[in-house]
Amino acid sequence: MGRIGKAEKDVKSLKSMKLYDERESSGLSVNDIVKMTGVPRSTIYSKVKSQSKAQLSLIKH
Description:
Elements: H1 6-21, H2 23-26, H3 30-37, H4 41-60
C-alpha cells in the first residue's frame, strides 16, 4: 500500500473540520474525530486556529 496522496489528505482534512464544527451538537470529542478520520490532533487544531484567525480578520474589516 502506497502513501496517501494530497487529494485524499485534503478530503480527510475537510471531513475532520466539518466534524469539528459539529462536535458540540453531535457529542464528538476531538479524539473521536481523530479516530474516525485519521487526521492528527495537531493538524485539526492548526486548521481551527488558522480558520479562526481568518474569521476574525473578516469581522474586523
